[in-house]
Amino acid sequence: MAAQYKSIHPVKYYRDFLAQDVRPDGRTPDKTRTVTVNANSISTSDGSATVRIGNTTVICGIKAELGKPKADEPESGFVVPNVELPPLCSPCFRPGPPSEEAQVMTCFVAKATSGMVDLKQLGISLDNLAWVLHIDMICLDYDGCVQDACVIALSTALRTVKLPKVDYDEDTKTPTVHLNQRTSVDVKSSPVSTSFAVFDEEIILSDPTAEEESLSSARLTVVTDGKSIFSVHKPGGSTLTEVQLQDCISIAKERANLVNEMIRVAVGSVKR
Amino acid sequence: MSPSTSSEAVEDQKLRPFFCELDVLSRPDGSAIVSQGDTTAIAGVYGPIEAKPNKTYIEKAAIEAIYRPKSGLPCVPDRMSESTLQHTFEAAILTTAHPRTLITISIQEMQDSGGLLACAINAGCLAIMNSGLPMRFLVAAVNCMIHENGDIILDPDEKQLKESCAVMTFAFDNVNKNIVSSSTDGSFSETQYQEAILKCRSACDEIFQLYRDIVKKYAPSMG
Q1: Can you name one GO molecular function term for this protein (chain B) (predicted)?
Q2: Separation in Å, CA B9 to CA A179, B12, B91, B160
């Protein structure tokens, strides 16, 4: 009976649950889902991680390539993050060029994680050679908060990257790669993203599922490392007061500390 | 504090000069050109028009925001401003009044010297007002930055932005003055964020007053 009721009137179905201060999956409105972090899941990549938030699954692989530095920053390398939402992850996506949502998500993840790596350490030879990190995040299961999973996966994968030592001969213009001498990338900050959905213009749901996201009247994403904030992204939708925003920021900060601890343990277990 | 720095501080609390003209284009149902300092954007609204079958909602109008940069085609970062614009206008327009239709808001960047997203939201809102579409509330957006020394500067220009460690844009509604959209760049603390909201909120009153003046000026010709 509940299943029929839900498909006929999904909003009322949610309203009935939320009147009792509980969500259909058993969580209270402010409770987030379980996060699972696995570091170095792809052995053939230079760095990788798999992250699950409830059912949402994102796999991230980093490929390091030698390239020519950009003309305006000759001493640094660069990172190229990309989020892919293939048709496999949700019925909302069709094969073909990246959907608008994937493009927006790529841009959001790139902005949120822009301060993590000092790009100067990726430079090898001034104006000649630098590391280019291609960071690909592929969503395998789209069940809400994919951007959060992407940021956590990127942060974990970046910590598992080991770049080989490269000597560059300026005269012959040839690089020599020492595959057995590898160093990890110095990661400066550890941003963790937490998303919220506003239901019926007043109830704030932490870490919403895809269903809750589609029924919501507004969405909000906070990126923080537990102390400083890197982004508060609310692209329109129903309005929020500062107090509501403040509550979301405190939930996000608490979760950031937990997730960062989880990333530390996951990365630590790989190094052994 | 020396007198010169205090007068500078007062200067920083002001918005750049705001100019607006409505009905600048003949084809759209509503249009507006807005310049805040040297940042200029032009907006046109078409709607309600027929929607494509895959973009039709049975209970409300679909809102489409198109953002065009000054030169070249829109690229990936522009998609993010486009999504912010779309969701902001979706909240402001009473979409349930025109079910199964499409409302298109096109915004063309004319010049960017800081705070383009805020200028685009303001231009879009004025164009919607000009088109006569029913709205839930009006929106006004304010841009601010956090200086390297921790000061919060309202509506900075390109020169000031070079010394910023974070840039934020907020949009507020005119009914309860709550936050409709927030987009940030760079890192900052929670107190700085709260302070920035408070400053931008008091500045948005000025923009709503400007909206009122503009409507008064154009009311005879719009009737």
Answers
A1: RNA binding
A2: 56, 5, 35, 13
Domains and CATH numbers, chain B: 18-216 (3.30.230.70)
Q: Is B89 on the interface with A (CB under 8 A)?
A: yes
Chain B residue with Cα closest to A223:
B187
Interface predicted TM-score (ipTM) of this complex, two decimals: 0.90
The shortest C-alpha distance from B55 to chain A (Å) reads 13
Q: Give per-residue pLDDT as tens, A253-265.
A: 999 999 999 999 9
A56-93: burial string, b at 16+ Cβ within 10 Å, e else = bbbbbbbbbeebebeeeeeebbbbebbbbbeeebeeeb
- A18 Cβ contact partners less than 8 Å away, ≥ 6 residues apart: A29, A199, A200, A203
Angle between helix axes B76-92 and A100-112 (nearest 10 degrees) is 110
List the one residue out of A245, A248, A236 whose CA is nearest residue B141.
Answer: A236
Each of the 272 residues of chain A gets a pLDDT tens digit; together they read 788 999 999 999 999 999 999 999 999 999 999 999 999 999 999 999 999 999 999 999 999 999 999 999 899 999 999 999 999 999 999 999 999 999 999 999 999 999 899 999 999 998 899 999 999 999 999 999 999 999 999 999 999 999 999 999 888 888 899 988 999 999 999 999 999 999 998 899 999 999 999 999 999 999 999 999 999 999 989 999 999 999 999 999 999 999 999 999 999 998 65
Q: Which domains does chain A have, with CATH numbers?
A: 29-271 (3.30.230.70)
Mind listing the pLDDT tens digit for each residue in B33-89? Answer: 999 999 999 999 998 999 998 889 999 999 999 999 998 888 888 899 999 999 999
* Model pLDDT, residue B222: 65
Q: Do residues B180 and B86 lie in contact, with contact meaning Cβ atoms separated by under 8 Å? A: no
Tokens of A207: 């870490």
Beta bridge partners of A193: A223
- Cβ within 8 Å of residue A3, ≥6 positions away: none
Strand A47-53 and strand A203-206: the pairing is unpaired
Mutate to test the interface with B, among A232, A243, A249, A253 (most CBs of B within 10 A): A232
Q: Spell out which residues of chain A touch residue B87, defining contact as CB-CB under 8 Å.
A: 218, 235-237
Question: At how many degrees (to 10) do helices B190-222 and A242-271 cross?
Answer: 130
**pTM score > 0.95 for this model?**
no
Four-CA torsion A271, A106, A148, B182, nearest 10 degrees: 140
Give start and end residues of each alpha helix (H) in A91-238: 100-112, 146-160, 210-215
**Quick check: bond before B48 cis, omega within 30?**
yes
**3-class secondary-structure state, position A157:** helix
Q: CB–CB of B184 and A231 under 8 A?
A: yes
The residue of chain A with its CA nearest to that of B175 is A239
